C-alpha cells in the first residue's frame, strides 16, 4: 500500500509537449481515475508512473521513494493494459504465475496465490487454457488476476474495459469496484469514459491537452466544475451552454439575457456575476435542471423553447429544443405529453445554474 | 469468395488455380519422368515414330544408381547439408538479435540502420563474389566448407534481420512492457515472452535461409574447386555436364534427390511457416 505523489511532471516527445506540469497526490488506498478526451496525455502520465516512459522533468514518488529512474520491475506496481497483453503462449495459470516466478517466489506460495486470485475472479475453471481460448470478459479477468497475485503497492489500469461490449463493461465496472473494496490497494485508472470515471473513482482527475483541469470527488466535479470544459465533459447528456449578456436589473440584481431567454441571476451568483455587468458570459445548465414550467415557477426563471426532437429513453425523455439560437436538451418525465415542434415553457433550477467566463472558461 | 453462377467460379477461381498449379508442378514432373526414363528413350529424336516425352513404360533406376555410385553425389549432399545448416543457424541467431534490436531498442538511427541492412541484401552476389574471393584467398579458406559457411551469412543475415524485424514489430509491445513490470529484465522478457511468440517467424527465417543457402550457386562455384568439396547444385552441373554433353538422366536424378531435403524441411514446418507468414500473434 502506498501513496503516489506527482510533482511538476512534464513529458515531451521530442518537441511535442504532451504532459504539462501535472501535480497530484494520490492517497493510500485511493481509487483515482484519470479521465479526458483521447490524446490528452492520460496514458502517458500513467506510463511515467509505471516507468515505461521516461520523465522529461518533475518527480514521481511511490510511497516514500522517488522512482524517477527506477526500472518498472522495482516499482512494485502492476498494470492492466487495454489490450490485456496476456502472454499468448502461456496458460492462464502461467500468465498469472509469471511475475511470481520472475521474483523467485516459492512454488507453493505461487500456487496458493494464483488459486486465491483465481477464486476471487472466478476463473478457476480456465487455469489450464490458453488466452486465445477465452472470451473477452474472461481475458479481462485473467489480466486482472495477473495484476493482483503479486499484491503490488499500486495498480495501474489503462482503459481496461474499453474492449468489452457495453453490458460486460457495466458488470466488470462493478466487479472492479468490489475488488478495490476488498483489496484496498491504491489504484490509478485511466479512461475516456466519464461514466466509468464517475462510478469508479474515489476521486477523479479531469485532463485536457496534457493539463489537469480539476481534481475532486465525482459529485464535487459534477456540481462544482472548475471550468467549462469539466462541466461539459462530465454528465450525459452534456450540460447546456448559452452565451448571455449580463445587465443590471433596475430593481436590483442582474439579468442574463440573449435572443431566446431572459433570466434573473439567482442571488447565490449575484456577487460573482456582478463584475460582468454589460459583458457576456456563458451560462451552463444541466439537462436535469430544466423542467416544463408550471404555475409555481417564478416567471423570471422561465423561457420559451421549441421542441425539435424527443428521445424517449424509458426512464426519462430527452427534449432537444431550440432556445433562440442555442440548442438545449432537457431531461424530463418519460411520459411528457410534448410533441415535435411544440412550443413549451421551460423553467430552470436556479440552485444549479453555472456561469463561466467567456475567455478563460473558468467558473465564475 | 466470388459469389454468383458456377461458371464464374470456374472462370475466375478454379481454372486459374489449375493453370497455376500445372505451371508450378510441371518441372517436378519433368524431373521425375526424366530420372526414371532409360537413356534409349531420352535421346530418341523428336520425330521418331515412338517418341513420347511425357510418359515411359520402362522405368529404370539406373540413373540414380549411376549418380550414387559413379559420382560424389552423397558427399555433395553432406557438404551442402553441413554448409546450409551451419550458415542458417549463424544467420538466424544473428538475425533474431539484430532484428529485435532494430525493432525494439530506441537507439539513434535505428530506422536508417534497418534500411541500410536491407540495402546490403540488394547488392547482387554477382558483384560481391569478386571482393569476397579476395578475402577468402587472404584467409586461405578457398576450397573448404568455411568459404561458404562464412560468406553465406553476408546475404542471409540481412535477410533474416529484415524478416525478424518485421515480425517483432508486429508483436504488441505491451506484452514486453507487462513482462518488465512483472519483474523480468529486458533479456528475460525477450527470452520468455518475445522469442516463444516469434517462433513462427524464426522458423520462416530459418526455412528461407536454409533454402537460399541450399540452392546457392555462384559462391559455391567460385570458392570451391575440388570435386569432393562441392555442393549439390555445383557438383551436379559441373560433373554431369561435360562440354556440351548433358547427362540428362543423372542430372535430373541429382536435381530430384537434391530437392528432397528442402521439401522435407518445408513440409515439416509448413504449419508454423504458414502461421509465420500471416503473422498471427493476437493475444
Ligand atoms: N511514443 C510517442 N511518441 C510521440 N508521441 C506520442 C507517443 N505516445 C503518445 N504520444 C502523443 O502524446 C499524446 C498523448 O497521448 P496519450 O497519453 O496516449 O493520450 P490518451 O491516453 O489520453 O489518449 C498524443 O497526442 C499522442 O499522439
Ligand atoms: Mg490512452
UniProtKB/TrEMBL annotation, chain A:
Listed SUPFAM superfamilies: MOP-like, P-loop containing nucleoside triphosphate hydrolases
Q: Quote the Gene3D superfamilies the UniProt record gives.
A: 2.40.50.100, Nucleic acid-binding proteins, P-loop containing nucleotide triphosphate hydrolases
Do the record's keywords include ATP-binding? yes
Please name the NCBIfam families in this protein's record: PRK11650.1
Q: Which SMART domains match?
A: AAA
Ranges for domain ABC transporter come to 4-234
Judging by the UniProt lineage, the source's domain of life is Bacteria
Q: Which gene encodes it?
A: ugpC
Spell out the family assignment given in the record's similarity comment: Belongs to the ABC transporter superfamily.
What is the species listed in this Swiss-Prot or TrEMBL entry?
Plastoroseomonas hellenica
User: What keywords would UniProt list here?
Assistant: ATP-binding, Nucleotide-binding, Transport
One Gene Ontology molecular-function label: ATP binding
Protein name, as recorded? Sn-glycerol-3-phosphate ABC transporter ATP-binding protein UgpC
TrEMBL record, chain B:
Q: Where is the protein localized? A: Cell membrane
Alphabetically ordered keywords of this record = Cell membrane, Membrane, Transmembrane, Transmembrane helix, Transport
Topology class, membrane: Multi-pass membrane protein
Instruction: Please classify the protein's predominant subcellular localization into one broad category.
Output: membrane
Q: Where is the ABC transmembrane type-1 domain?
A: 77-269
UniProt keyword Membrane, yes or no: yes
TM ranges: 12-33, 76-102, 109-132, 144-168, 189-214, 245-269
**Which family does the record assign?**
Belongs to the binding-protein-dependent transport system permease family.
Q: What is this protein called?
A: Carbohydrate ABC transporter permease
Which organism is the protein's source?
Plastoroseomonas hellenica
Its lineage reads: Bacteria, Pseudomonadati, Pseudomonadota, Alphaproteobacteria, Acetobacterales
